Amino acid sequence: MARRSSLPTPPAKVKAPAAANTLAILQLLTSSDIPMSAARIIQETGLPRSTVYHLLRVMEDAGFVVHVAEECAYGLGRAAYEMATSYSRQQPLVRVGVRTAQQLARAVRGSAHISRLSGSEVIYLLEERAPGAVRLLTDAGVRLDCVRTASGRAMVAYAEESYVRAAVGVHGVGGREFADLLRELKAVRERGWAEEKELVSPGQESIAAPIFDHLGRATAALAVTFGCGTLGEEERTRVGEDVRQRALWLGERVYGAGRAARAGSSGRADSAGQKRRP
């Protein structure tokens, strides 16, 4: 159930009531997992019936809303989806990270990615492939279980244990398996980067490092994926450290992370569940 407190300022308090009303409807539809009836929209927004129907028709014509006749309800349309996709392409982290991802992909003759956490999943924001590299599942917009990926583990390693339990519980990880995961996450903090082998793509392995924001939180991750056995142990370690350093640089460049990011990175010996101070 959407809350009115989360809606834009009521029309009476703004200079563009039509725009505010339109945004109120779009924000309400965005907060719902299922299409909503016009009656529900009227109730939640508190807007006049005639206004709601008029704006729904305008938004439907523009592609921002789709009318599901079978359910007598309205949901977000293709234009709204394209806007969200454009945001994922245009946001600063992606724009700043493109060149870094390209360089890493060429260095390992594979792919490089930037992603962020979304609940118990990782959502990929960017993928760059070296010439001739294998096409993977991890294209922009793809979502995967966070504990299944190196990127997800790189971020989750710096989260509180309560979050880790909630996130992995969705995917049925418990008991001894969960204890093993906690030990692995501790190793990630000590080393500064995470890894996975053939958990996402057969014949491929990945290395990922967290990107810290200005509060020292691991809000995103930078990763590389390459063919299993193509890098020796010494070279893998060098690539892991390179990814870690580049991830720290991205955090400083995009979020102004600076000291807070380095503090989050250097707090590697802490156990999951302990908060780190910038």
UniProtKB/TrEMBL annotation:
Low complexity bias spans: 258-272
Keyword line: DNA-binding, Transcription, Transcription regulation
InterPro entries: ArsR-like_HTH, GAF-like_dom_sf, HTH_MetabolicPath_Reg, Tscrpt_reg_IclR_C, Tscrpt_reg_IclR_N, WH-like_DNA-bd_sf, WH_DNA-bd_sf
GO biological process: negative regulation of DNA-templated transcription
IclR-ED domain residues: 79-256
SUPFAM superfamilies listed in its UniProt record: GAF domain-like (SSF55781), Winged helix' DNA-binding domain (SSF46785)
Annotated ranges, domain HTH iclR-type: 16-78
PROSITE patterns: HTH_ICLR (PS51077), ICLR_ED (PS51078)
Region (Disordered): 258-278
GO MF assignments: DNA binding; DNA-binding transcription factor activity
Top-level lineage group: Bacteria
Annotated protein name in UniProt: IclR family transcriptional regulator
Species whose genome carries this gene: Corynebacterium uropygiale
